[in-house]
Design brief:
The complex is a heterodimer of chains A (about 300) and B (about 350).
Chain A: H1 2-29, H2 43-52, H3 59-71, H4 86-121, H5 126-140, H6 143-157, H7 169-198, H8 202-210, H9 214-251, H10 257-266, H11 270-298, H12 300-306
Chain B: E1 3-16, E2 19-32, E3 36-40, H1 47-55, E4 63-72, E5 75-76, H2 82-88, E6 93-96, H3 110-121, H4 126-139, H5 145-148, H6 158-170, E7 176-180, H7 188-205, E8 208-213, H8 216-222, E9 225-230, E10 233-239, H9 240-245, H10 250-257, E11 307-308, E12 314-315, H11 331-343
Parallel strand pairs in B: 3-8, 3-9, 6-7, 7-8
Antiparallel strand pairs in B: 1-2, 1-4, 4-5, 9-10, 10-12, 11-12
Helix pairs in contact in B: 3-4, 3-6, 4-6, 6-7, 10-11
The complex binds adenosine-5'-triphosphate (ATP) and magnesium ion (MG).
Magnesium ion binds near residues 47, 48 and 180 of chain B.
């Protein structure tokens, strides 16, 4: 098992290196420069700034410097934002994003699984139909529309929650819901489909023939088997949360990574863009690793495949 | 002999988009303590539906018992609620299914799958149940049960899985074991092993077995009595000897006549032409008439009742009516009947 994890970590590092390289060169190819907007600077001043940030060095030298910094955990210094180290910016901003993402994932998957389960048990009942409607709405309406709607109804009109910004738990509720609706819909749809299929399988009949009570059939024999395929969509779901956070954080003015990313792109703050990209990439890869490990935990057929051999 | 199970005029239907499928149309039979009754018949004749009805495992409400009684020691199972059935299934009656590859829960250790019934029906503690599960695994011939008990189904071969399924079914010493084509999905040598296993276990536990198959060859080896089903009805029922030495129904002739033989490969087969009727609209009269070369005129008008051949032997064909012409089984069937007598298919059974 440890060997398996070590190997995976090695692949992770390799992937990160490739992404770092790709994003570095993409930044170089992109038109525009961090100085574009500031027309008031004289040529001389611009020259000084370019020199200061090493932007006049040949590209290979810049690349080597960048990698050298990366290895030491130094993502460079932001071109904007008062020359703060990028690492510092990310550390300051990861809290709200992580909290939101976590809350949304928990709320979305638990409610979604519950909803899908109910729909599968009470098939073709009002519960089933409402679950389908929620699933359709959740998957088809973009989260920013939903976020705006929530903001308008529950914050502006009803005044139950703060409109935006960050601080207390109340501030997290609306963005969490906005972010959770998509994973909730996915989980509900998936759970229902899988449960219906699983409940028709032969081993469920075997369990019934043993005299297992209906609750045991559904929870002990059904749900676990239905959840295995759900793990496969957990990955895309979590990725959706990360990208979704860029929009949601912007709408609710939450000082998180997503909002930072969007702002940095607007002003061509290369080091911050690259740092954020790397962080996102790291998040994705980590999630994939966790999902693979989770798979082994829940599905005995996969458990031994990579590990003890 | 005491009657353990009496099925009386059982009718089972399925409501489908096309209408009502009359899958079982009045089945009557008894099962005595400790005996093995084989139910044979073509695909679609209603064997599985009959056994699922006894277990009340029909996909209710669209599959339902329309009429009839299923008396287990005098108590009608057809009237039980699902809650009450949960106490009977796995305890009084249990079942072994056709496909061992899919009839075990892939994410549950086989030990737990065996222990589940024990803990529910016998109120055993986990430790007791585990001990019993180990004994059961030994009983069904699984080597190294102490290791195997912690493994998952995918770590077992098909034959071994079927042994596990048998262990699960036997866990609570059921009065009746229903085996629905338990060996069809297995290769021949494994088939023989599983049959052997079931026979030896029956001798130890004295449970009655309903053995469903479409392989008459297997029947002679395992059964005491045989019920032949066609289009949702039992058309002939009797002891193994009755059915193999003195078959009366042309459909039974067809089944026997289409059995492969070893002695001569050029011997003609007496196969049954055509295909079974559509159970959405079962034919009037004898359902077998259309495929029966010996059909009488009355067959298309009126359904034959069960004629008594002997105390143990009944068949539903107008050919047994006193006024009917005397018709002998075709030669291919006779040859096989003689073959049974020579090789002693008789007593291939247990007693
Ligand atoms: N769920 C169902 N819905 C509708 N019709 C069904 C259903 N289950 C069985 N039937 C019908 O009932 C009839 C009897 O089927 P059954 O499964 O009992 O046959 P069988 O004798 O067990 O055949 P086999 O040897 O193939 O297992 C068939 O005509 C089948 O189409
Ligand atoms: Mg069947």
């Amino acid at each position: 098992m440890t060997r398996y994890i070590l190997r995976r970590v090695w692949y992770m590092l390799l992937t990160l290196f490739i992404i770092a390289t790709a994003s570095f060169f993409l930044m170089k190819i992109l038109p525009g420069s961090p100085l574009n907007a500031e027309d008031k600077l004289s040529e001389e001043q611009k020259e000084i700034i370019l020199e200061k940030y090493g932007l006049n060095d040949p590209v290979p030298v810049q690349y080597a410097k960048y990698l050298g910094g990366l290895v030491q955990g130094d993502l460079g210094v932001s071109f904007k934002f008062d020359n703060t180290p990028v690492t510092q910016i990310l550390v300051d901003r990861i809290g709200p994003s992580a909290l939101l993402g976590f809350q949304a994932l928990i709320v979305g998957s638990i409610l979604g699984i519950f909803l899908g389960l109910m729909a599968s048990i009470f098939r073709n009942s009002p519960i089933d139909f409402s679950s389908t409607i929620i699933a359709v709405i959740g998957t088809s309406i973009p989260s920013f529309v939903f976020a705006g709607l929530l903001q308008y109804v529950f914050a502006v009109k009803l005044g139950w929650f703060p409109v935006a910004l960050w601080g207390t738990f109340e501030h997290t509720i609306l963005p969490t819901i906005a972010l959770a609706i998509h994973p909730l819909a996915t989980a509900a749809r998936f759970t229902r489909t899988e449960m219906v299929e699983v409940l028709h399988s032969n081993y469920i009949i075997t369990a019934r023939a043993k005299g297992v009570a209906e609750s045991g059939i559904i929870l002990k024999h059904g749900l676990r088997n239905a959840l295995i395929p759900l793990i496969t969509v957990l990955g895309p779901m979590a990725v959706g949360l990360m990208t979704g956070s860029m929009v949601i954080e912007q709408i609710f003015a939450i000082p998180g990574i997503g909002e930072q990313f969007v702002t940095s792109v607007m002003v061509n703050d290369y080091p911050t863009i690259m740092g954020t990209t790397l962080l996102f990439a790291f998040g994705f890869i980590l999630i994939i690793l966790i999902i693979d490990l989770l798979y082994g935990l829940i599905d005995p057929r996969i458990r031994l495949a990579g590990g003890s051999k | 002999m005491s009657k353990l199970l009496e099925v009386k005029d059982l009718k089972v239907s399925f409501n489908t988009y096309n209408g009502e499928v009359h899958a079982v149309r009045g089945v009557t039979f008894d099962l005595n303590k400790g005996e093995t009754l084989a139910i044979v018949g073509e695909s679609g004749s209603g064997k599985s539906v009959t056994s699922n009805a006894i277990m009340r495992l029909l996909p209710e409400p669209h599959g339902f018992i329309k009429e009839g009684q299923i008396l287990l020691e005098g108590v009608d199972l057809a009237k039980k609620s699902m809650k009450e059935m949960q106490k009977i299934r796995g305890k009084d009656i249990s079942m072994v299914f056709q496909d061992p590859m899919s009839s075990l829960n892939p994410t549950m250790k086989i030990g737990n799958q065996i222990m589940e019934g024990l803990m529910k029906h016998q109120n055993m503690s986990k430790t007791e149940a585990r001990k019993t599960a180990l004994e059961l695994l030994t009983l069904v011939g699984i080597p190294r049960p102490d290791v195997r008990i912690n493994q998952y189904p995918h770590q077992f071969s098909g034959g071994m899985r079927q042994r596990v399924v048998v262990a699960i079914a036997l866990a609570c010493n059921p009065k009746i074991l229903i085996a629905d084509e338990p060996t069809t999905a297995l290769d021949v040598t494994i088939q023989a092993q599983i049959l052997e296993l079931m026979k030896s276990i029956q001798q130890k536990t004295d449970s009655a077995i309903i053995f469903i198959t479409h392989d008459l060859g297997v029947v002679a080896n395992v059964a005491d009595r045989v019920a032949v089903m066609y289009a949702g009805k039992i058309v002939e029922i009797g002891t193994v000897d009755d059915i193999f030495y003195n078959p009366k129904h042309p459909y039974t002739w067809g089944l026997i006549g289409s059995m492969p033989t070893l002695d001569s490969n050029d011997e003609e087969l007496f196969a049954i032409p055509g295909s079974p009727p559509n159970m959405l609209t079962p034919p009037v009269g004898d359902a077998f008439a259309a495929r029966n070369q010996f059909a009488l005129e009355i067959d298309t008008v009126m359904e034959p009742p069960m004629f008594k051949v002997s105390d143990t032997h009944y068949a539903a064909t107008w050919l047994l009516h006193p006024d009917a012409p005397k018709i002998e089984p075709p030669d291919a069937v006779k040859h096989r009947m003689q073959g049974f007598a020579q090789t002693g298919t008789k007593g291939g059974g247990k007693r």
